[in-house]
């Protein structure tokens, strides 16, 4: 499950894929829950967290893919339904996003839909997410999954893993990969060995998980502001 969560970006249909020809909703035949890689029984907080993770992966600073913008639009549509209790209930009953988006009074629900999609995320939301993710088992699993995906290229791992900073997290990530290699859950790549040797030659940061300064917090809040999703 953790590995699947690490790759939720891949669950989003690519723009112009064959699956898009079967439907014009941008979902590629997947359910909204499959797009976010959560169970149908997921809580509101689990859905919100999955949305934030996927949104971070689709930010231009982390995802240079040509179809990232189209995937982000799909992600907004998904969260616009699953992030709203009434729309989610209608979707669960009908399986149709159109019914969920325009249930009840059409104008009111259309207004609420767009308000939900572009809902602002507060700085406290950003701080809470960074604080709970960095150093967690979820982060460790994401690091190991990205390490395997990119065959030990840690430069790409840092591009992929959200909230990461190579200057602060290199030693932590090296430890996580070393542990995975030692227990047999990940292969050893020479590319990683060379990188890790360079990292180990430098002193490790004293407190890599320390909360960022106020200036950096504002920068992170600015990044999240483009995602919406705060409730």
Under the CATH scheme, which architecture of the largest domain would be assigned? Orthogonal Bundle
Radius of gyration: 19 Å
Structure summary, number of beta strands: 0
Strand content: under 5%
CATH superfamily of the largest domain: DnaJ domain
Q: Structural class of the secondary elements?
A: mainly alpha
Share in helix: 55-70%
Brief summary of the model shown:
By secondary structure, the chain is an all-alpha fold. It contains 14 helices and no strands. The protein folds into two domains: 2-123, DnaJ domain (Helix Hairpins, Orthogonal Bundle); 135-208.
Tags for this model:
single chain; 231 residues; mainly alpha; Helix Hairpins; 2 domains; 14 helices; elongated; disordered N terminus
Task: Describe the protein.
The chain is 61% helix and 0% strand. It is mainly alpha-helical. α4 (44-58) runs antiparallel to α5 (68-82) and α10 packs across α12 (166-182). The relative contact order is 0.12. It has 2 domains: 2-123, Helix Hairpins; 135-208. It contains 14 helices and no strands.
């Amino acid at each position: 499950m953790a590995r699947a969560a690490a790759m939720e970006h891949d669950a989003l249909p690519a723009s112009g894929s064959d699956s898009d020809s079967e439907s014009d909703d941008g979902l590629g035949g997947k359910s909204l829950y499959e797009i976010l890689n959560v169970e149908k029984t997921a809580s509101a907080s689990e859905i919100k967290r999955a949305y934030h993770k996927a949104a971070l992966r689709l930010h231009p600073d982390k995802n240079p893919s040509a179809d990232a913008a189209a995937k982000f639009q799909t992600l907004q549509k998904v969260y616009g339904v699953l992030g709203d209790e009434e729309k989610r209930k209608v979707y669960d009953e009908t399986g149709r996003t159109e019914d969920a988006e325009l249930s009840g009074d059409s104008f009111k629900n259309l207004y609420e839909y767009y308000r939900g999609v572009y809902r602002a995320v507060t700085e406290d939301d950003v701080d809470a997410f960074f604080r709970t993710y960095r150093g967690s088992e979820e982060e460790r699993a994401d690091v190991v999954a990205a390490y395997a995906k990119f065959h030990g290229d840690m430069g790409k791992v840092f591009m992929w893993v959200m909230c990461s900073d190579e200057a602060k997290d290199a030693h932590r990530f090296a430890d996580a990969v070393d542990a995975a290699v030692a227990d047999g859950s990940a292969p050893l790549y020479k590319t990683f060995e060379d990188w890790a040797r360079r990292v180990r030659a430098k002193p490790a940061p004293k407190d890599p998980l320390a909360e960022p300064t106020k200036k950096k917090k504002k920068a992170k809040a600015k990044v999240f502001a483009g995602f919406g999703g705060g409730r």
